[in-house]
Design goal:
By secondary structure, the protein is an alpha/beta fold. The protein contains 13 helices and nine strands. Helix content is 47%, strand content 15%. Helix 3 runs parallel beside helix 4 (81-95).
Length: 286
């Protein structure tokens, strides 16, 4: 049995779909979700849905009973991940889970980004648990930018504090394909994969978006504190705005850049190109 946490989230849903497409039977998948009401499409496919919350250790232990392999998708609540992830790991150990694949962040052990701290603690907790594991250190999602294209195409601006830093981003579907490859065929020994796509700068993203859309799009770089204030003015909670601005400073340092070809090797096909992703997003917002 393979359990997928966060199975109704963006990445979790793609992972479940990819498992099915790769031949895993619905009866061999357990979707672990916070709200069963949002998982009716999974139920209709014959997938067992179990309700659990990262903040509730007892619910997690119950949800992971009978699970052999766990696709542990990191929580979305920055600042709460360590206690929540501790609950997941303890539950996996109690339930006798044999293998854990955890979605971490690129260069978790060396990155200075705020986001990396909780991921590194989680990696160390998994190591200490003694459970056979793989760390899938995902880079940035291309969707972090393309999902904002409604505003981008209206304003003609991509804002940030990344200067000319390189970003090894890839689409969620490509990351999902990689993590499914690992959960279906775990490595013989504990493994760490540095996952990222072909690198680009935000200036290059703006130029490509201009080319594809036919509209003039420019990248407006600004100091990180100013970028955080801008995000907050758009309704982003201040704490998360600070984290996003900090992540752009990480881009300047190279924290989200990699030359690793682990992602290409795992999925066994060409990655979705930035241009393809941009074209899709522009069409969706036209």
């Amino acid at each position: 049995m393979i359990a997928v946490t966060g199975a109704t989230g963006h990445l979790g849903k793609l992972a479940v779909e990819t498992l099915l497409n790769k031949g895993t039977k619905a009866s061999e998948i357990i979707a672990v979700v916070r709200n069963k009401g949002k998982a009716q499409d999974l139920v209709s496919k014959g997938i067992a849905v179990r309700e659990a919350d990262y903040g509730n250790a007892e619910s997690l232990t119950k949800a992971l009973q009978g699970v052999e392999k766990l696709l542990f998708i990191s929580g979305s609540e920055a600042g709460q991940r360590v206690p929540q992830h501790t609950n997941v790991i303890n539950a996996a150990k109690k339930a006798g889970v044999k293998f854990v694949a955890y979605t971490s962040i690129l260069k978790a052990d060396t990155s200075k980004m705020i986001l990396a701290k909780e991921h590194l603690v989680t990696e160390n907790l998994i190591k200490d648990s003694g459970i056979h594991h793989a760390f899938l250190r995902n880079g940035w999602y291309i969707e972090n930018y393309t999902e904002q294209f409604g505003n981008t195409l209206k304003s003609g601006v991509i804002a940030g504090a990344a200067q000319n830093g390189k970003i090894s981003a890839a689409t969620r579907s490509d990351y999902a394909a990689a993590i499914v490859a690992v959960i279906r065929n775990p490595p013989a020994k504990n493994a760490t994969y540095e996952l990222g796509g072909d690198a680009f700068t935000l200036t290059e993203l703006a130029a490509l978006t201009s080319k594809v859309s036919g509209k003039k799009i420019e990248y407006k770089d600004m100091p990180a504190p100013d970028y955080s204030k801008l995000l907050a003015s758009f309704g982003v909670p201040q704490g998360f705005a600070d984290i996003l601005a900090d992540s752009d400073e990480g881009i300047v340092r190279g924290d989200l850049y990699t030359t690793s070809d682990d992602l290409k090797k795992l999925i066994g096909r060409p990655l979705t190109s930035l241009e393809e992703a941009v074209k899709k997003a522009v069409q969706a917002n036209s």
